[in-house]
Design brief:
Structural class: mainly alpha
Number of helices: 10
Radius of gyration: 15 Å
Order of helices and strands: HHHHHHEEHHHH
Number of strands: 2
Number of domains: 1
CATH superfamily: Hypothetical protein af1432
């Protein structure tokens, strides 16, 4: 049941050519859903603390993940077209899709959980990625996409996802301010 929900929520899965990688991404999300009693991904808020601060109660995690994936794929395709770079589109798309998978454990509705308070999504996300049997490169993307860790992106794919996440989050924040330096 959860697998179908994940596939419906993220049509970008079809862009992952490697079937094992694609199924691992589905498994990571389905596991997070099952572990946290989430039946409908569409109802999961984007980031409750920021949403409260900004008065943006109508932002959702699936939309954010899809925005990050679209931005990351666009960045990667542009670089492949204009630069002689070695990067994996599969890793970029899969990494973008799982970068926030553990937000399902960080929040219960709009309330923070101990996972948020004590670990935060980058650390718990690494656990979910490993449980799904996904490669360490995806765990690195999850761990390095946010300032909640001191781990910097070490690969081009991780840098792309981190920047795509920052841009997508800035787009959300821009709904509440004319100057992103203030939030």
């Amino acid at each position: 049941m959860h697998e179908r929900t994940v596939r419906d929520a993220f049509p970008e899965l079809a862009a992952i050519a490697d079937e094992d990688l694609r199924e691992g991404v589905v498994d990571a999300w389905a596991t997070a859903m099952a572990d946290n009693d989430v039946d409908d991904l569409a109802d999961v808020p984007w980031f409750p603390p920021a949403q409260r601060d900004l008065g943006l109660d109508d932002e959702y995690l699936v939309d954010h993940v899809r925005d990050v994936t679209a931005c990351a794929l666009s960045f990667a395709e542009t670089l492949l077209e204009h630069r002689d770079v070695d990067l994996s589109l599969d890793t970029v798309v899969a990494g973008a899709l799982v970068h926030d998978v553990s937000k399902l454990a960080e929040f219960d509705g709009l309330a923070e959980t101990p996972v948020y308070d004590l670990l935060g999504h980058p650390h718990y996300g690494v656990h979910l990625v490993a449980r799904a049997g996904l490669p360490v490169e995806l765990a690195h993307i999850v761990l390095s996409h946010t300032h909640r860790t001191t781990v910097e992106p070490a690969t081009l794919e991780a840098s792309i996802v981190a920047h795509a996440d920052a841009v997508a989050a800035a787009a959300i924040r821009s709904r509440a301010t004319d100057d992103l330096r203030t939030v």
